[in-house]
Every structure is written in structure tokens, then in C-alpha cells.
């Protein structure tokens, strides 16, 4: 069985885009799931789950190691009929997420989708596995339900969490956004998106771009 997990914050932040993607996935025969942070068993043997959330990726990897877990971006690239919108070589910076630094298939799929949309891609110096950015996510306490669901993953991450007061987080994000030199940025992570907007930068989430043609 095919499942689609939109991600709670992605749906909240981009309801119109996610509604279009849900309709697309329903036509592909997917069951629409609500949240990865549940003790209810989502997947059975042989099931595949598609998602567009970095937090979901981390949890699914540990909770369902024997199931196929694909990013929405990897899934879409296998659909030769997907209606990518042509952006006519508009320049766009990719902000890689620290949480996905060990998931190069995810990162490469982002880039291939942007190529299909005819963007001119600008890479940050610290891209792919070198990325250290996750917005404000690494400056706040981990959610207890994440630790409970995927203890190995989040206990390992705990050493990279450095709590900071809100004003210091804002200051850091404003400094980071200066690196973009007022150019448009694309993200695929809620933490990254929140951080860029906190720093008064502009960005698109990948789901917004993919939904344009649906």
C-alpha cells in the first residue's frame, strides 16, 4: 500500500499547496496520513510511504527501517507526466538542511526537481553534507514525543542542540540571511523556513513550487 504523509507543519504553513499535492497523491492511490508522531502503526510489511518533511524522515527511518520511505521529490521524479512549471532560468539558492546532511538521495532529488522546473541553481558553499543550517531548530529543546518515538536518532542529535534565548536566535538568523544577498531561496525544511523568515529573508518551500502545476 502507498501512503502519503504531508507533515503537520508543512500542511499548516502551506495549506493550499498541500491540498493540491494530496489530491495528486490520492489519484496515485495513496492513503493520506495525518502525523508521523503517533504510536499507532502506520505501515505494514511491503508498504511504501512518501513524505515532504525532514522531521518525518528522521522518525520514519528509525520506526520503519524495513519499509520504503521516499521523499515526495524522489517520488515525483518517477512520474514522467508530472506538470512541472517552467521558471525560465530564474536564479534560486538552495538552502540545504542540517537534518538531511546524511540523506543525499533526498538532497539530489530537490535539485533534479528544480532542474525540471528550469531554475538556475545557486549552491551555498556549505551544501549537501557540509550544511550546518536548520533555522532555529537546533537552538530549541527537542520535543519529548520525538525522543520517545525515535530514541536512537534524537539522543544522537541531542549533542548538537544548543539552547539560545529568542533574541539571540533572531540575531543569528538575521546574520545568516545576509549570506543570500537578497536573492530568492528555496527550502525543504520547516525549521529552515522559520529561521529565514525570522531573519527577514524571503524563501519558497519546495511544496509551493511543485504545487504550481497541479
In words, what does this structure look like?
The protein is an alpha/beta fold. It has one domain (2-136, 164-211). Helices cover 42% and strands 14% of the residues. The protein contains 10 helices and 8 strands. A 4-stranded parallel sheet has the order 2-1-3-4, with helices on both faces. The chain has a 4-stranded parallel sheet with strand order 6-5-7-8. The protein starts with a strand and ends with a helix. The mean pLDDT is 96.
Count every helix, treating DSSP H or I runs of 4 or more residues as helices: 10
User: Secondary-structure element sequence?
Assistant: EHHEEHEHEHEHHHEHEH
Query: Spans with pLDDT under 50 lasting ≥5 residues?
Result: none
Supply the helix-strand structural class: alpha/beta
Radius of gyration: 17 Å
Give the tally of structural domains. Answer: 1
- Tell me, briefly, the overall form: globular
Indicate the percent of residues in helices: 40-55%
**β-strand amount:** 5-15%
Biggest β-sheet: strands ordered side by side in the sheet:
2-1-3-4
Lay out the secondary structure.
Layout: E1 2-5, H1 8-13, H2 15-27, E2 31-32, E3 48-51, H3 54-63, E4 68-71, H4 72-77, E5 90-94, H5 104-116, E6 119-123, H6 144-149, H7 151-158, H8 166-177, E7 185-187, H9 190-198, E8 203-205, H10 206-211
Helix pairs in contact: 8-9
Amino acid at each position: 500500500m502507498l501512503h502519503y504523509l504531508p507533515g503537520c507543519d508543512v500542511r499548516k504553513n502551506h495549506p493550499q499547496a498541500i491540498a493540491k499535492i494530496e489530491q495528486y497523491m490520492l489519484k496515485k492511490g495513496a492513503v493520506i496520513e495525518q502525523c508521523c508522531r503517533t504510536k499507532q502503526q502506520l505501515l505494514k510489511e511491503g508498504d511504501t510511504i512518501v513524505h515532504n518533511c525532514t522531521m518525518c524522515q528522521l522518525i520514519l527511518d528509525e520506526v520503519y527501517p524495513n519499509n520504503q520511505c521516499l521523499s515526495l521529490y524522489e517520488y515525483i521524479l518517477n512520474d514522467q507526466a508530472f506538470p512541472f512549471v517552467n521558471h525560465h532560468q530564474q536564479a534560486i539558492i538552495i538552502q540545504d538542511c542540517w537534518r538531511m546532511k546524511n540523506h543525499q538521495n533526498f538532497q539530489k532529488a530537490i535539485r533534479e526537481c528544480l532542474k525540471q522546473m528550469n531554475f538556475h541553481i545557486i549552491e551555498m558553499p556549505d551544501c549537501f553534507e557540509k550544511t550546518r543550517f536548520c533555522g532555529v531548530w537546533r537552538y530549541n529543546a527537542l520535543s519529548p514525543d520525538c525522543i520517545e518515538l525515535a530514541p536512537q536518532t534524537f539522543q544522537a542529535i541531542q549533542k548538537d542542540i544548543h539552547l539560545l534565548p529568542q533574541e539571540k536566535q533572531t540575531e543569528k538568523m538575521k546574520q545568516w540571511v545576509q549570506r543570500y544577498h537578497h536573492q530568492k531561496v528555496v527550502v525543504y525544511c520547516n525549521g529552515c523556513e522559520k529561521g529565514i523568515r525570522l531573519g527577514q529573508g524571503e524563501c519558497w518551500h519546495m511544496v509551493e513550487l511543485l504545487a504550481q502545476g497541479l
